[in-house]
Amino acid sequence: MTAKQIRVMVLNDMEKLERTLFRLEQGFELQFRLGPTLQGKHVHVHTNYPAEGERFERHKFRVLDWINPTGREDDSDKFCTLDLKISGSYQYYFGHGDKEKSGDGYIVVDPVLRVGEDNHVLPLDCISIQTYLSKCLGPLDEWLDRLRVAKEAGYNMIHFTPLQTLGVSRSCYSLADQLELNPDFSPPGQTYTWTDVANLLEKMKNEWNMLCITDVVYNHTAANSKWIKKHPECGYNLVNSPHLKPAWVLDRALWHVTCAIADGKYKDKGLPALIQNHEHLHAIRGVLWQDVFPKIKLWEFFQVKVEPMVEQFRTLLQSGAKPDRSKAEGKQQLKIIQDPQFRRFGNTVDMNSALETFVPHGSSPGAIEDCCNWLRRRLEELNGEHYHEIKHHQEQATNCIAETVSYERLADHGPKLGPVTRKHPLVTRYFTFPFEEATFEQDLELMNQPEKSCHFLAHNGWVMGDDPLRNFAEPGSNVYIRRELICWGDSVKLRYGNGPEDCPYLWAHMQKYTEITAKHFVGVRLDNCHSTPLHVAEAMLAAARSVRPNLYVIAELFTGSELIDNVFVNRLGITSLIREAMSAGDSHEEGRLVYRYGGEPVGAFLQPSLRPLVPSIAHAMFLDVTHDNECPIQIRSVYDSLPSSAIVSMACCATGSTRGYDELVPHQISVVSEERFYSKWNPQAKPSSPDEVNLQSGIIAGKLALNRLHQELASKGFNQVFVDQVDVDIVAVTRHCPSTHQSVVAVCRTAFKNPKHHRYTDEVPPMCIPGKIEEVVLEARTVERQADSYKKDERSINGMPGYTVEIKEHIQLKDSKVVRQAGVTSRGRSEFVQEIVFEQLTPGSVIAFRVSLDPKSQELVGVLRHHLIQFNPLYKAGSLPDPNTPGILKNPLTQIMSKMTLADMNILLFRCDSEEKEDGGGCYNIPGWKPLKYGGLQGLLSVMADIRPKNDLGHPFCDNLRQGDWMIDYVSNRLISRGGTLAEVGQWFQAMFAYLKHIPRYLIPCYFDAILVGAYTTALDVTFKQMSSFVQNGSTFVKLLALGSVQMCAVGRFPALPPLSPALSDVPYRVNEITKQKEQCCVSMAAGLPHFSAGIFRCWGRDTFIALRGLMLVTGRHMEARNIILAFAGTMRHGLIPNLLGEGVGARFNCRDAVWWWLQCIQDYCTMVPNGTDILQCPVSRMYPTDDSKPLTAGTVDQLLYEVIHEAMERHMQGIEFRERNAGPQIDNNMRDEGFNIVAKVNPDTGFVYGGNRFNCGTWMDKMGESERARNKGIPATPRDGSAVEIVGLCKSTLRWLVALHKQGLFPYNSLAIHKDGKQLSMSYEEWDRKVQQNFEKMFYVSHDPNDPNEKHPELVHKQGIYKDSYGASSTWCDYQLRPNFPIAMVVAPELFTVEHAWEALNISEEKLLGPLGMKTLDPDDMVYCGVYDNSLENDNYNLARGFNYHQGPEWLWPIGYFLRAKIYFAKKLGKDTYDKTVYLVKNVLSRHYVHMERSSWKGLPELTNENGQYCPFSCETQAWSLATVLEVLHDL
Question: Which positions fall inside the Glycogen debranching enzyme C-terminal domain (predicted)?
Fold first, then answer.
């Protein structure tokens, strides 16, 4: 059972894709998902694809339902789906809110064709089609004898030109009656009907396995169609299209010139009836300019009669008329208004704009007269402009007439029509004229008689270089008057209007015609498709599909633009576009077309069954020549017919030809003038017999072999293509089957020039063919034979009898005449190559080899595929059981991986270069490219994710795999060296790679990818199973973020955390490789990759505890979280938790906030983990039981965690004041001496924690100046001394929690003892909590009231309605800066805030600070704001040098998590409407993080970006707290 194919269309706002082609197959599922611009919006998707069991109606759209797989508010994975079961073209559009349409496009679903008695499927790429001109088939009872030629030549589809009654010109495409079968098909005494045709087609389908299609012609009908005489409204005539009158007058004038030339009247002017030279052409120009144009005065149709207009104007002025302002849209230029009936001088002017433009200076007769003169002058100018415009049209008409005459009568490649006669006029007439010949003046009188002029119908034709989406017969087009139409004088252009209501008879007639066609034929070719009005073809094909749902539609488009081609393909649901090998000027171009029109490259990657829907080019029907094009024998040579056919047959698309090509008919079989019949099939036919053919005729035997090969390759899945231009004339095309790895290589030597007259080289370069040649499928060449020379037969369409094909099929290489020798060479241990030296690859010959992998490689690939079935059932095809399966491969990989811990997964999947180097390794470096981001699988898969969808096999990564086993060995050896379960996974890789290394190198990238993708997806499954249900049942985005926990949390070679108390249970241990002693191996958390990942800079107290809730508690890694909390607790000193951990021994206690983040994490642990409060009773091994003790070993002094918590609180209440140990440049090169003095105390009046000084920075905004040149060295950019808002919030959160714990009996302390001035005092936790609650809003809120009694510094306020960033800073103005810190306090201690104030402050933050991925760290209105961080910048700018603005503008990601969580919390308090809008904002913001993560090769979120989300090269590429806080937002949702 193969997996269901699912394609995902990502919708983006304002994306209009009507010129993009998306092709799908029946049985596919199409999912619509929202792109980042639409996340969170209420999007509605509409489609006209019918619901199950309903009929398709083009204009009936339905809304699709959203499916949200997680069922949660985080619906980033939601999609709506279509199960595609019906072929055709379907439209979708989507909108959101009150926007009905904010994007749209089309999907085209291919039909499924069935053939034979058993109704088996004929894949589109299997089609071999041959075109027949129906009129050349003779009576219906002789058709099978003539059509048998196609069957015997191996074709499986026939294209008939229309079978309807033909018009008087006998052109195959000029139909007199669209509903009637051509009576020529019925012999005397017999009348055949459509039923007889249907029986014949059914017989061919069942007995010959052959399908039939025919043309539909919508654009025109024969000029002699009876129905058009009854219904002249169906064409463009002078009554319904009066704009054509001037063109008709010119056309009649030209007809009378024809008559005059034919009657010899211009002989004396140097213009005889037989036009033979350029003087004669010059004479024609003279006649036009001297006799025709002055006589017909076409400009009069576009001009105005001046005097009556002036009179009318004078009358208005005399009556005192004023312009009507309500009519005028601004001041209008005076313009001539075209008479809709196009009468001479029938035009008028708008008197309103005349009154506006020409205003008299008074009411005196003189003033009025002046005004009238102005108008008269202006009207004469306008008339002059129209005169010149018509003159330009006449110049173009003259040129077009001269070119036409030159082509038809002088050119060597033209039809050489001979003298001008009424039968062969000077130029083809543009309009029908169904009346007796009369004088030109009499003709002109008919123009004004509607009952007659309705029969002057415009002919159809085509216009060189015209816009195919424009109808050239409609008003606004000048094609007819400029004589730009290359006219088909036998056909009338049909006028459909905008819909059936405009011409009911025509629409009904053509619909009936369509339904008859669709009933009998499996498909249609849209004739003249590019100039058939799109809405007409659309409606007719919808009618055809209601008769035959799996309608096969083909067309040839001459738009010159792939984008415009796509408009036709999309709107009409065209299945295949006709492409022609004859369009190639040389063999190189012919080979390129094969590569362009189908298949993937050889060795392509296996694509996942669920993948993005990508634009494609239209499916090709690649023909060696089409039936309406010149004969290749005339353009190239007879010897080229076979090799060019072979190149076409090797294309991975539908292919075909036209009848006559295979018999080597040396001229074009004209669709207009050919009246002879095709020859019949007779196996015993003689070469000289003109009316019979067999396998010896022309290249028929070669074509049979090629058609069989083409069909076999398509049906057996040879869908990979490689085209090699061996030399100027030789093209080698390889078709490869990705499951069996068999190939067929066809080497074709073209002969564009005739070898008899052109010297071809005898030197044919040898060819190397990878693999083992099983057989020569065919070798063939065109040879001369004894026969009469070609003579065009009177009755039968005959080919050149003097040529046949010498062909051998299915022979061994040794029996080949074309190959001299085939040496076997082995390139490396797995490259088995055969070198072919050619003996007789003469121009016009073809040889095709069937190539397998050598037996050893074949077996190894089969076994490898067998072991890959566990990941994808598609590998079943071509798999072989392995008799000697190594033990490690006997169990599925899931079984091995299920023993791995998440710390093992960190090694398997991630680890950046510095982490790898700590273990003595490094990330894999691809020479000439760059190192991978990770040593683990993610490093490889990030690159492969870019290469795979594009099949970019030329990428340096793939080159490296093909050139050697280095990368392969790196993957397995890296894991084996680790020991334990990782080594088992490494051995699994090693065993899989043992097969991989011995298969041909060109296949290694795709199988390496398959092995890695299988292992990677297995590892992810196992990883998520070890996480919380929130992650397991979460969206793809949640899982991506949760992987950040695996990325950041690791056990290094050297333990990063100080040892835990030996009395603690469930602590992981390992044996140290060097000391052989047992040691703890707890997971520690990196702050960010790559800069903070290894050694002393890996672990930071602040970063760890900001990220711990998201990366460890939310993901369910409770035990590891407990160990990190307790390890840091053990390093407490001075009542603080270290910032830089340095394994505890090298810790620095220079930050005021880490201890509060640590306390918040303990609170979160207690509330989020089952029985979480047990942690309070856990033993903590104190490294520094007193401030001055040396570091003690684990277990020397143990305390319970709640005692350590109480100590931290008591020390703050007592007041912390100390100088850092070893103060000076040895611990901090930039710090000034005062900066080493650490203070953290509690204000007894407000309860606020405060501390720091202006020379140190104790919060997360901790940039210390480093530039002596800019004089900022030793000065913190953001000291944030005093009471930082987030610390006050965290402290309040802790107090509230401890008070509650005490009430529950889980925390024994209710008050803190302090010593002041020798006295022992105490303060209860409840009182401290109350003080903070009472003072926070008073002291921190910046109110709108200028007289607010709590506001001590109203002069410093520059934003009202916000919360201060700090309170009591040494530089008071810093308190008033808008920064993204107060939302942290809102999340941890929302009780401090009034809802209305909080909401306003958050909205100001949103407006001023919210960036695409992060929050601006400073208000952009602040004078020191700068959003671009450059740590290497050394200049004189105090605010910028050496990255001094690190927290003065750049957009940090982690605060966005708190901002969004605060928004969600307070929105819930403000009602549903506000909450819904907030959820939209949250989803919209987070969608940008989702996109970033998906695209990031680090699979992470950065530490910060520069302003407006721009990339910052100095940022960590992935940061623990960025990932954590975004994950927490999704958890809150």
Answer: 1074-1528
C-alpha 1127/C-alpha 1055 separation (Å) is 12
Q: Locate 15 and state its tokens.
A: 């994306």
Q: What is the spatial distance between Cα 1479 and Cα 714, in angstroms, rounded to a whole number?
A: 51
Pairing of strands 767-770, 619-623: unpaired
Cα separation, 524 vs 358, whole angstroms:
62
Query: Could you give the percent of the chain with pLDDT greater than 70?
Result: 99
**Structure tokens that stand for 1137 in this block:** 């938790």
Q: Are 914 and 1094 in contact (CB under 8 A)?
A: yes
Q: Residues 1108, 1124: contact at Cβ < 8 Å?
A: yes
User: What angle, rounded to 10 degrees, do the helices at 1285-1303 and 1325-1340 form?
Assistant: 150
Whether cis (ω within 30° of 0) applies to the bond prior to 1090 is yes
Output the pLDDT for position 365. Answer: 87
User: What pairing do the DSSP bridges indicate for beta strands 79-83 and 1084-1085?
Assistant: unpaired
Mean pLDDT, the chain, as a whole number? 93
- 269 backbone dihedrals φ, ψ, rounded to 5°: -90, 15
Catalytic pick among 243, 393, 530, 1531: 530
Nearest C-alpha neighbor of 127 from the set 24, 210, 28: 210
Instruction: Note the helical H segments in 1089-1180.
Output: 1101-1108, 1118-1130, 1154-1168
Q: Are 770 and 1000 in contact (CB under 8 A)?
A: yes
Task: Show Cβ contacts of residue 1334 under 8 Å, excluding neighbours closer than 6 positions.
Answer: none
The DSSP output letter for 605 is P
Any idea what DSSP says for residue 219? S
Q: Which residues in 392-422 are b (16+ Cβ under 10 Å) and which e?
A: ebbeebbebbbebbbebbeeeeeeebeebee
Q: Is 527 a catalytic residue?
A: yes
pLDDT digits (tens, 9 = 90+) for 1372-1428: 999 999 999 999 999 999 999 999 999 999 999 999 999 999 999 999 999 999 999
- At 1278, list the tokens: 């953001």
Kindly report the three-state secondary structure assignment for every residue of 85-113: CCCEEEEEEEEECCEEEEEEEEEEECCCE
Listing DSSP states for 1212-1248 in one string gives HHH-EEEE-TT-STTT-SS--GGGGEEEEEE-TTT--
d(CA 1024, CA 943): 23
Token output for 556: 């040839």
CA angle 1251/1252/1253 to nearest 5° reads 130
Is the separation of the CB atoms in 516 and 164 below 8 Å? Answer: no
Separation of alpha carbons 138 and 135, rounded Å: 6
Q: Rounding to the nearest 10 degrees, give the CA dihedral for residues 871, 872, 878, 882.
A: 20
Catalytic choice (215, 628, 913, 1329): 628
For 1246, the token pair is 């407000």
C-alpha angle 1049/1053/1056, rounded to 5°?
Answer: 55
| pLDDT over 90 at 446, yes or no | yes
Return the pLDDT at 467: 82
> What separation in angstroms does the CA of 810 have from each of 200, 735, 815, 851?
34, 17, 10, 13
Report residue 1212: phi and psi, to 5°.
-65, -45
Supply angle C-alpha 481, 486, 491, rounded to 5.
95
Distance CA 22, CA 10 (A): 12
Strand-pair partners of 82 = 30
Looking at residue 936, what DSSP letter applies?
S
% pLDDT > 90, the chain: 83
Residue 830 has a pLDDT of 60
Predicted local confidence at residue 496, as pLDDT: 95
Q: How many CB atoms are located within 10 Å of the residue 265 CB?
A: 12
Residue showing tokens 């707290």: 1521
